[in-house]
Amino acid sequence: MSPVFHFGFLTALALLSITVSPVACWRPWRPQANATATPTDLLYGGSKKFEGSSEFVHLRYHMGPVLTSNITVHTIWYGTWQKSQKKIIREFINSISAPAASKGRPSVSGWWRTVQQYTDQTGANISHTVRLGEEKNDRFYSHGKSLTRLSIQSVIKSAVTARSKPLPINPKSGLYLLLTSADVYVQDFCGQVCGFHYFTFPSIVGYTLPYAWVGNSAKLCPGVCAYPFAVPEYIPGLKPLKSPNGDIGVDGMISVIGHEIAELATNPLVNAWYAGQDPSAPVEIADLCEGIYGTGGGGSYTGQMLEDRDGATYNMNGIRRRYLVQWVWNHLVNYCTGPNALDQ
């Protein structure tokens, strides 16, 4: 996700549900940012929508670094987390590099193969290997229950400079994933953003480290950030779909986490792969496919998804679980692709 993820209103949409796989449904739509830009808007930019259209997309490589070395995801659990919630997220991250044969198709690792197709200026591809690294728990809300974008960097600083078991400093192949629990509010959460990525400022953290933040929306705005497992209150008659792991907030986070990891790998310092003329407001490989989870997706339609025997909706298999993860842009064919495409 480019640093800002906008949300908006659903226009006269109805849920299309069927009793056998695949499953198709609608998603809420989102307006562009307010025309009056603030300094934060200019820094983090706006997510422009092209939704699977190749005619207007000009994704280019801007010669910056991408993550070609084995990628390690260092996780900061901020706030109160259940063991079961952590397990769902850990298994998703571990599924990115797992052999497809070990979990069945369509697979999370099949989704990652699209990301791997991106290269740096030497022709080296994004790493096949994504592994879970060190973890840090901040269960006492060291920076409070309301965070700004800059205080997020202070949380990361606390994690990498802690006296006891600090997270390792790994700017070349490390990703720092800050996950906030359902009782934590982050600047612009729900109204404009469910997650974003950027890099830390040496003046705050002491290092330039690619990082992402993703929030659990279960209490604050599940109809916005956990859609389609929850629906907006202002849309009567729209029924939510069943989540694959029985936790609406965390199942909603999974797609945002995948979105951010894909964009951190291809644009870690916001100077590699993106579309648009303004590097302060890049449109990245997952932005181009927001809301697309299957064949036929585009506009405000998710595309064809799958339904489990118990009625849960998903589109790819992990090692031991199933997940719903949005597709990403394939620059070789110039449209959004995913492992559950019907034409594969």
TrEMBL record:
<feature type="signal peptide">
    <location>
        <begin position="1"/>
        <end position="25"/>
    </location>
</feature>
<keyword id="KW-0052">Apoplast</keyword>
<keyword id="KW-0964">Secreted</keyword>
<comment type="similarity">
    <text>Belongs to the EXORDIUM family.</text>
</comment>
<dbReference type="Pfam" id="PF04674">
    <property type="entry name" value="Phi_1"/>
</dbReference>
<protein>
    <submittedName>
        <fullName>Protein EXORDIUM-like 3</fullName>
    </submittedName>
</protein>
<keyword id="KW-0732">Signal</keyword>
<dbReference type="GO" id="GO:0048046">
    <property type="term" value="C:apoplast"/>
</dbReference>
<dbReference type="InterPro" id="IPR006766">
    <property type="entry name" value="EXORDIUM-like"/>
</dbReference>
